[in-house]
């Protein structure tokens, strides 16, 4: 029986080759995108699933009560306290991330990603396997280390690394006690080197240590029968018992399951870039894939219903010969499944082109998300997923045509004898499906165009900071004055400045509280440590300043404020603030005196956190600039020409030849830093626009097939009209008019919706562009124009037919 179904299904699909090709192509394109999203989500879902009982692994997080900021870190004494006194816990571990650092072995200095963990780490994350060394009390001794297999080869070659030593950052000697095998899946607690973290830094008796909630991560493996709420309650009690009263009231501990880390809310101080992708991102890309799949499904339904005249007669004959409705439903669903499975095969081949494009997205590189591997397609689970997806799509797309066609009565279908109005299916349904496809396409095109305009605006906007021809160099352990004096005479260097945190890129700020005699409560300011050259170097405008302000500034007590800070501190004007004594609060009982030596215009400095939501800084808020050479982390070097490659080469040579440091040379173009603001939105625009183009392609192919079908069913009508004197233009207008009315009506309904939605999300963007009516009209005209041209290709060809040819057999 199944073989007969498949044989008949294949014959019917071959008989309607054009429609079958359009359906397979549309479904293949949409399935390729769906499979791409499923592979990406599957890889993210697999993060740390290779540990045994991973559902019992949890992370303790911290909620700051005054502003609602949620941090992935927890108090440093908490792991020790949990191990010593908390019931229902199998293991608790502390994790401290060094991030990008370096190790030295002989004359070799290697950049690595290092983690500092305690001995309990291997009990919580027991999925990590050793290639060499003993798991017992691994990293229990100070100054011991575990390295990955790849790092062991880079450091020690083919020698046995266990018992060998290296220097961390050229200073502290560590002994290798274990070598990790490659993990069985992705992990967010991975690194090249794992260094021992002793309990000395986590002593639970120090109340002040409980107030350090920003530097260490706490992971717990619960015993069977212990719930996350039990852990949260226990952690809260330990925190209240050990912390200072003000810290206990300022912070609240919560618990996050390891299974929800990847798809949960975005937290501050996240341990790895791959966990900073907000949960809404998955819904967004999943929604785009669903839209494309629905468009292809609508296409299938629309074309199947349009062909129902021919299939209706087939149904009538089959029912007359005794076929049951269930058999006909099975037959039509079989055809749909064969079509979808054929599309799945084509989709798998299309993935070969889609995956490299997806891996090139800037956002994945920014968040350090590993690229998708095409070898995943050879995984039996992935093959099964592809086949299952094809079957499900086939059932969903074929359900309506199957039940509608199988419900026809033989007497009606066999009596129709060429009545296309009856057999052509529901005109309203076809119109509705076309309208939805065009509406979705129009919405996506308008949205993608708006996103690209906003991206271009953000990339080219005047930030008041002169970032052209500027690069940053991480100073590491090189004093700024030493660096500046050594590179200032290089021919490729125009000038140099210093700063502690980079502006316009990562949302990394220091905050200080200032008060003056004119206001009762201190104001919160974002502060940057910069040298005197920074003002002119980066193009800041001094609104007012004391004479020789730079001398007072470098002495340490002079500060520059922006106009927002001047207003918040109660001064009437920038000049009124000059020379004023203000206080920088360090605690409730002490402060440091500061003197205002200058006022700069407000300028944009915020980074990705503020652009995409969740940032803690106010772009229009108060700011303070101060001098402190010990705080400078980066040198900002402006090139004397547009050839920044020469600048990079000169600085790298100077780093290795003129400075006594083992740290690797870290150089970044400032354009790459600024790209962090607009690059993610640019990726979203590309994804949205790509799906929009694919949607309009699918819709156009569907319209082409429907127009062809309409021409075929109305050939005699066209011949009669031409025989009675109708011109080619008259026939084209007559055939195209229903489509044109439908397309224009859909555009009139969709355009205001697209405008409102895009206007809404733009309100969340800093320095947003407007949704320009001219751009929207251009998008509408392009989409409607493509559809009308597609329809016109068939109607014009039909209108040119000689009526003598079409009517000679009548």
- This entry's quaternary arrangement is single chain
Structural class: alpha+beta
Total E-strand runs? 22
Instruction: Tell me the number of helical segments per DSSP (H or I, 4 or more residues long).
Output: 28
Poorly predicted tracts of residues: 199-204, 417-425
Radius of gyration: 34 Å
Q: What is the helix fraction of residues, given as a range?
A: 40-55%
Strand arrangement, major sheet: 3-4-9-6-8-7
How would you state the average pLDDT, rounded? 84
Estimate the strand proportion: 15-25%
- Sheet with the most strands, sense and barrel status: 6 strands, mixed, barrel
In whole angstroms, how far apart are the ends?
A: 43 Å
Categorize the overall geometry. Answer: globular
**Count of structural domains:** 4
Folded structure, characterized:
- With 810 residues, the chain is α+β, with helices and mostly antiparallel strands.
- The chain folds into 4 domains: 1-46 and 276-421, no CATH class; 56-264, no CATH class; 424-461 and 679-810, no CATH class; 470-675, no CATH class.
- It has 28 helices and 22 strands.
- A 6-stranded mixed beta barrel has the order 3-4-9-6-8-7.
- β7 (165-168) and β8 form a beta hairpin.
- α10 (308-320) packs across α14 (410-416).
- The longest helix is centred in the last third of the chain and has 44 residues, at 670-713.
- The chain starts with a helix and ends with a helix.
- The relative contact order is 0.10.
Features:
810 residues; alpha+beta; 6-stranded mixed beta barrel; 6-stranded mixed barrel
SSE layout and pairings?
Elements: H1 2-15, H2 17-45, E1 57-64, E2 70-71, H3 78-85, E3 89-105, E4 108-117, H4 121-124, E5 130-133, E6 144-148, H5 149-156, E7 165-168, E8 172-180, E9 193-196, H6 207-210, E10 217-222, H7 228-242, H8 245-250, E11 251-257, H9 279-306, H10 308-320, H11 325-359, H12 362-366, H13 380-406, H14 410-416, H15 420-423, H16 427-460, E12 470-474, H17 480-487, E13 493-499, E14 510-515, E15 523-529, H18 533-537, E16 542-545, H19 549-554, E17 558-562, H20 563-568, H21 574-577, E18 581-585, E19 591-600, H22 608-611, E20 623-626, E21 634-639, H23 644-658, E22 667-669, H24 670-713, H25 715-723, H26 728-762, H27 773-799, H28 803-807
Parallel strand pairs: 4-9, 6-8, 15-20, 17-19
Antiparallel strand pairs: 1-2, 1-10, 1-11, 3-4, 3-7, 3-10, 5-8, 6-9, 7-8, 12-21, 12-22, 13-21, 14-15, 14-18, 16-19, 17-20, 18-19
Helix pairs in contact: 1-11, 2-9, 2-11, 2-24, 9-13, 9-16, 9-24, 10-14, 11-13, 16-24, 16-26, 16-27, 24-27, 26-27
């Amino acid at each position: 029986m199944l073989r007969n179904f498949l044989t008949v299904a294949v014959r019917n699909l071959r008989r309607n080759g054009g429609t079958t090709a359009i359906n397979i192509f549309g479904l293949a394109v949409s399935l390729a995108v769906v499979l791409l999203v499923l592979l990406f989500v599957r890889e993210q879902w697999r993060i740390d699933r290779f540990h045994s009982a991973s559902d019992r692994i949890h992370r303790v997080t911290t909620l700051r009560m005054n502003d609602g900021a949620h941090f992935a870190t927890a108090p440093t004494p908490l792991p020790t306290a949990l191990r010593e006194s908390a019931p229902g816990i199998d293991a608790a571990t502390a994790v401290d991330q060094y991030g990008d650092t370096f190790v030295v072995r002989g004359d070799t200095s290697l950049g690595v990603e290092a983690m500092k963990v305690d001995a309990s780490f291997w009990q919580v994350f027991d999925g990590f396997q050793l290639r060499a060394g003993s798991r017992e009390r691994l990293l229990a001794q100070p100054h011991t280390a575990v390295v990955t297999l790849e790092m062991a080869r880079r450091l020690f070659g083919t020698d046995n690394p266990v018992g060998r030593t290296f220097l961390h950052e050229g200073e502290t000697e560590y002994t290798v006690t274990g070598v990790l095998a490659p993990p069985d899946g992705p992990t967010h607690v991975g690194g090249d080197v794992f260094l021992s973290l002793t309990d000395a830094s986590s002593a639970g008796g120090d109340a002040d240590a409980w107030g350090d909630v920003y530097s260490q991560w706490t992971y717990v493996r619960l015993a069977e029968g212990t719930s996350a709420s039990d852990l949260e309650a226990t952690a809260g009690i330990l925190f209240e018992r050990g912390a200072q009263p003000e810290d206990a009231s300022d912070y609240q501990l919560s618990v996050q399951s390891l299974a929800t880390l990847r798809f949960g809310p975005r937290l501050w101080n996240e341990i790895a870039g791959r966990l900073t992708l907000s949960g809404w991102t998955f819904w967004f890309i999943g929604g785009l894939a669903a839209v494309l799949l629905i468009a292809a499904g609508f296409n299938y339904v629309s074309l199947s219903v349009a062909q129902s005249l021919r299939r209706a007669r087939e149904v009538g004959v089959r029912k007359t010969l005794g076929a049951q409705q269930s058999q006909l439903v099975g037959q039509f669903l079989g055809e749909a499944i064969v079509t979808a499975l054929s599309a799945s095969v084509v989709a798998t081949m299309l993935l070969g082109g889609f995956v490299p494009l997806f891996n090139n997205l800037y956002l994945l590189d920014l968040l350090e998300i590993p690229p998708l591997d095409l070898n995943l397609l050879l995984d039996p689970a992935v093959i099964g997923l592809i086949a299952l997806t094809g079957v499900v799509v086939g059932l969903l797309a074929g359900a309506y045509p199957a039940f509608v066609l199988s419900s026809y009565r033989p007497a009606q279908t066999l009596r129709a004898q060429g009545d296309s109005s009856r057999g052509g299916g529901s005109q309203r349904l076809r119109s509705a499906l076309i309208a939805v496809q065009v509406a979705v396409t129009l919405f996506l095109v308008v949205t993608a165009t708006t996103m690209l305009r906003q991206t271009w605006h953000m990339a080219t906007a005047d930030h008041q900071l002169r970032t052209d021809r500027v690069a940053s160099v991480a100073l590491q352990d090189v004093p700024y004055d030493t660096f500046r004096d050594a590179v200032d005479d290089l021919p490729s260097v125009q000038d140099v400045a210093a700063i502690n945190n980079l502006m316009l890129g990562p949302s990394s700020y220091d905050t200080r509280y200032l008060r003056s005699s004119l206001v009762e409560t201190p104001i919160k300011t974002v502060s940057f440590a910069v040298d005197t050259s920074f003002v002119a170097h980066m193009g800041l405008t001094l609104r007012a300043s004391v004479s020789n302000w730079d001398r007072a500034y470098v002495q340490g007590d002079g500060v520059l404020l922006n106009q927002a800070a001047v207003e918040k501190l109660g001064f009437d004007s920038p000049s009124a603030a000059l020379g004023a004594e203000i206080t920088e609060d360090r605690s409730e009982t002490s402060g440091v005196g500061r003197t205002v030596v200058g006022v700069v215009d407000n300028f944009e400095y915020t980074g990705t956190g503020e652009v995409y939501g969740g940032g803690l800084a106010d772009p229009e808020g108060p700011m303070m600039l101060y001098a402190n050479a010990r705080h400078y982390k980066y040198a900002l070097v402006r090139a004397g020409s547009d050839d920044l490659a020469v600048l990079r080469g000169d600085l790298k040579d100077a780093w290795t030849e003129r400075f006594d440091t083992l740290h690797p040379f870290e150089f970044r173009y400032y354009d790459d830093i600024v790209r962090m603001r607009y690059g993610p939105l640019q990726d979203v625009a590309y994804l949205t626009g790509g799906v929009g183009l694919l949607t309009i392609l699918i819709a156009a192919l569907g319209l082409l097939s429907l127009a062809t079908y309409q021409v075929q069913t109305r050939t005699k009508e066209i011949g009669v009209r031409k025989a009675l004197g109708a011109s080619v233009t008259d026939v084209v207008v007559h055939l195209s008019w229903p489509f044109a009315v439908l397309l224009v009506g859909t555009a009139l309904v969709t355009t205001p919706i697209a405008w409102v939605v895009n206007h809404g999300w733009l309100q969340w963007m800093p320095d947003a562009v407007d949704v320009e009516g001219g751009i929207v009209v251009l998008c509408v005209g392009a989409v409607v124009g493509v559809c009308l041209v597609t329809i016109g290709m068939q109607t014009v060809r039909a209108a040119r037919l000689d009526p003598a040819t079409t009517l000679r057999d009548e």
